[in-house]
Amino acid sequence: MRVSQFPLFTHKEVPADAEIVSHQLMLRAGMIRKLASGLYTWMPFGLRVLRKVETVVREEMNRAGALELIMPAVQPAELWQESGRWKHYGPELLRLKDRHEREFCFGPTHEEVITDIARRELKSYRQLPVNFYQIQTKFRDEIRPRFGVMRAREFLMKDAYSFHTSESSLAEGYQAMFEAYTRIFQRLGLRFRSVEADSGSIGGSVSREFHVLADSGEDEILSADQGDYAANTELASSPGPTIEKQSPQAAEKRDTPDTDTVEAQARLLALPLDRIVKSVVVMADDTPAVLFVAGDDELNLVKAARALGAEDIRLATTGEAESATGVPKGFIGPMGLPEELRVLVDERAATATNFSSGANEKDRHWINLNWDRDVALPEVADLRLARAGEPAPEGQGKLCSSRGIEVGHIFQLGRKYSEAMNATVLDESGRDQPMYMGCYGIGVSRIVAAAIEQNHDEQGIIWPAPIAPFQLVIIGIGMDRSERVRQAAESLHDQLEAAGVEILLDDRDARPGVKFADAELIGIPHRVVIGDRGLDKGKLEYRARGAEKSEELDYDGVVDSLL
Ligand code: ATP
Ligand code: MG
Ligand code: MG
Ligand code: MG
């Protein structure tokens, strides 16, 4: 491929409204263009990467025996009424009406549609287990679309659904998907971790997420330094649908909380919403009651309180909270904590930047979570585990906190949808039984952004080879002036292309500096530079993206040395 025929649409300037590096680089490298909030066009260069990810996902799903299909993106409301989610899914569901005033939604996920297929097509236990999947555009009207395709409204997901006659068959199918996911993320060349997770609005009991590890990740992962235990701290907020976490950048930008947002989020937390006040969280005795508070920070406080075991969480006025605790606004107080936990809290507070602790005039213990920063969930979740008095299940030792980007999520749904929608098969004794179900998602488009978050430098993207849009870029220096350079570059291009290498020849009449900068920005793993000076010595210059130095290669036999 030649840049003259495959224009790059690159930019030097860092786009003002892009907060995280993958979003900036995807715009600068000409991979995506924004149409409206959370809606993006994949430009030809970006699409090559997206397709690579899709291919790996498809190959591994096929290898695991899953069957590809495509379901409609638009789904009739009746199915969602049957499952009960028409009412419960909330404002993330984009609802539509057709010309006959019939209601539909644009699918954020496809449990209902696949369950409808299953109940029509699957009649006997002999047809199970079976796993159907698709790679398809989803729409979720995200409360805060941001970070480009990382949290878009329209995005590409691989979603799979398995059907079983028994719980043990479901567990096997789930394990097979766990292994397929592990292969997928290994093949993509990403550093990742699987963690215990909240089942969110999808439902079910057992679930695990796959996270690409990156400092900018929205999720916080706690993992044991010995053994395999790892969990998403979001778990602390269950039950109820998952709540978005604040990134530090977003937290800085925030001013007064938007009432709609607070209301929506409080609804998600399933809290009564008769009053919304900025206030205090109070925990009493060993089974803490929490007087609640609304606002973004406060949502974190609710999570923190839940992590500490709070069950009764209510809204309160500042006055009520103050009179209950005797501490002024801005305090969270686990009152009457067991002694060993108090000691732990005090130790933590001595080193943590974002909370302090002490006793008030009534000698009741309190913790102050700093209002201006992200609440220290790692510490809080740590306390939760300390309180349980046992190490994390499969792991031991200290819990370490890291950040992750959720790129995959697998669930054992059980019979939630099959019972609600009457999806049964005849079992061996001829009786109708609701099927057991699993569902398995991968954020195909999010993976592209996550890969960049994990692999970049000051100059731009550093693609892991398996998803690089091109493997090698040839830069000709002065191709417009030197016939010798043009011929050498063209011939190398043609030979490598014939050998099956995905190759990009920068044949523009541009200054070398521009070509070098673009090659680094778009992150092609290997680069060859051809110029008159090198050719005089029979040499070319080679450099791997991210390497500190270039090497000289002999022009004769270069194709073999590059392959
Ligand atoms: P999140 O916690 O990030 O909102 P989720 O838990 O709501 O994600 P799932 O319902 O588990 O998402 O969907 C499966 C996968 O789809 C996720 O693991 C994620 O990779 C991807 N995904 C979900 N929402 C988005 C989005 N708004 N933009 C891009 N990818 C998304
Ligand atoms: Mg999630
Ligand atoms: Mg979500
Ligand atoms: Mg999820």
UniProtKB/TrEMBL annotation:
It comes from the Bacteria. Residues 234-249 have a biased composition (Polar residues). Its EC number is 6.1.1.15. One of its GO terms (molecular function) is aminoacyl-tRNA deacylase activity. One of its GO terms (cellular component) is cytosol. It holds the Pfam family tRNA-synt_2b. Gene3D superfamilies: Anticodon-binding domain, Bira Bifunctional Protein, Domain 2, YbaK/aminoacyl-tRNA synthetase-associated domain. Catalyzes the attachment of proline to tRNA(Pro) in a two-step reaction: proline is first activated by ATP to form Pro-AMP and then transferred to the acceptor end of tRNA(Pro). As ProRS can inadvertently accommodate and process non-cognate amino acids such as alanine and cysteine, to avoid such errors it has two additional distinct editing activities against alanine. One activity is designated as 'pretransfer' editing and involves the tRNA(Pro)-independent hydrolysis of activated Ala-AMP. This is Proline--tRNA ligase. It comes from Natronospira elongata. The lineage of its organism: Bacteria, Pseudomonadati, Pseudomonadota, Gammaproteobacteria, Natronospirales. The gene is proS.
